UniProtKB/TrEMBL annotation:
CDD domains per record: NmrA_like_SDR_a
Annotated family: Belongs to the NmrA-type oxidoreductase family.
InterPro entries: NAD(P)-bd_dom_sf, NmrA-like, NmrA-like_oxidored
Domain NmrA-like as annotated: residue spans: 47-196
Keywords of the record: NADP
A single GO cellular-component term on record: nucleus
Official protein name in the record: NmrA-like domain-containing protein
Alphabetized PANTHER family for the sequence: NITROGEN METABOLITE REPRESSION PROTEIN NMRA FAMILY MEMBER, NMRA-LIKE DOMAIN-CONTAINING PROTEIN-RELATED
Length: 312
């Protein structure tokens, strides 16, 4: 059976940072020299925004199944509607389910109170508005900072506008996340992903989300301020479709622009359906992306799911 795929193989990155520089100094965050990486005083509260969604949900599963983190963290999952089935499922798995809305700043302090780590993700597509996404990112960072949170993880994307030196400005859902990143006071961890036939792009199995964060959770001081590219590998679209075809037994091929249905004039189509050659030239993570990814992989200690394994 023939199939076709669009190359909306984005990628994301997580930016982690210590939310308050003064707090960091006061607490004397253990360094590698002073304390073993796994040193922890208590079972800590770990607040996960988007816990009912893909990224947050994958992180919840990773932490609950992890032999060490499952004992070190109490998980608090944030949702706008604690009565929804996804939230109730979390509660059944011993996650404390709390209600808050990133668009209602007053709801945030109670859910981050007493937290040690906060994972935050925004859903650009709910409003398709860069302004809303930036506002949400800033208020959650403010709330975490005010609560004295020690480690703050921001699910981000690179600024395509910056990477292409202003030539491409239509990737608002990338640029708006990167702008929030500029607002964050300090520190970093990046997680990414993937997109044309010969252009290789970073690609991730979303279920691996937690594996990229494990090293930073064990040794926050070492990872503070770092961006961590999160991708299994750089794949070309040809590799993706060839593997997909082989594993599923179905013929998967990429549609050409000529084969796409007539445009409906939506924002998404206008801005994202045509691959921008400038983005291809610069590379999704910039020219140093592949080398940075190799460096990151050397520091991970869990096997990542390949595209082939994902399809099995
Ligand atoms: N798909 C890709 O290739 C790709 C690549 C890179 C980055 N991204 C980015 O990933 C983000 C989406 O992440 P995802 O796929 O994990 O999301 P998702 O599965 O669609 O879930 C969205 C989550 O965000 C929560 N949420 C949404 N609005 C909220 C609000 N106002 N207050 C509190 N929580 C809110 C939802 O919780 P409740 O509904 O329970 O309240 C839900 O848990 C987007 O911003 C997108 O740009 C996607």
């Amino acid at each position: 059976m023939d199939g076709s795929i669009e190359s909306d193989l984005g990628f994301h990155r997580l930016v982690g940072h210590l939310a308050n520089n003064d707090l960091v100094r006061n607490l004397e965050i253990p360094t590698k020299k002073s304390l073993p990486p796994r040193y922890k005083l208590n079972v800590e509260a770990f607040v996960i925004f988007g816990a009912t969604g893909q990224q947050g949900g994958a992180l919840v599963t990773y932490l609950l199944n992890h032999p060490v983190f499952s004992k070190e963290y109490r998980l608090r999952g944030v949702t706008r509607d604690s009565s929804k089935p996804g939230a109730q499922e979390l509660a059944k798995r011993s996650v404390e389910v709390v209600s808050a809305d990133l668009s209602k700043p007053e709801t945030l302090p109670p859910v981050v109170e007493g937290a040690h780590v906060v994972f935050s993700v925004t859903n650009f597509w709910d409003n398709a508005s860069a302004e809303v996404e930036q506002a949400q990112g800033k208020v959650v960072a403010d709330a975490a900072r005010a609560a004295g949170v020690t480690q703050f993880i921001w699910s981000s994307l690179p600024s395509i506008e910056k990477e292409t030196e202003g030539q491409v400005t239509s990737y608002e859902h990338f640029d708006s996340k990167a702008k929030v990143e500029e607002y964050l006071p300090d520190g970093t961890i990046r997680l990414p992903y993937a997109w044309t036939d010969d252009l290789t792009l970073p690609y991730i199995d979303i279920n691996d989300t937690g594996k990229y964060l494990g090293p930073a959770l064990r040794d926050p001081a070492k990872w503070n301020g770092r961006h961590v590219l999160a991708a299994t590998a750089f794949y070309s679209l040809k590799e993706i479709t060839d593997t997909w075809s082989r594993v599923t037994g179905k013929t998967v091929r990429c549609s050409t622009l000529d084969e796409l249905p007539p445009s409906t004039g939506s924002w998404f189509e206008e801005n994202l359906s045509h691959r921008n050659p400038v983005v291809g030239e610069v590379g999704y993570f910039g020219p140093s992306g592949p080398a940075e990814l190799r460096e990151l992989h050397a520091e991970l200690d869990e096997e990542l799911n390949t595209w082939e394994e994902y399809n099995l």
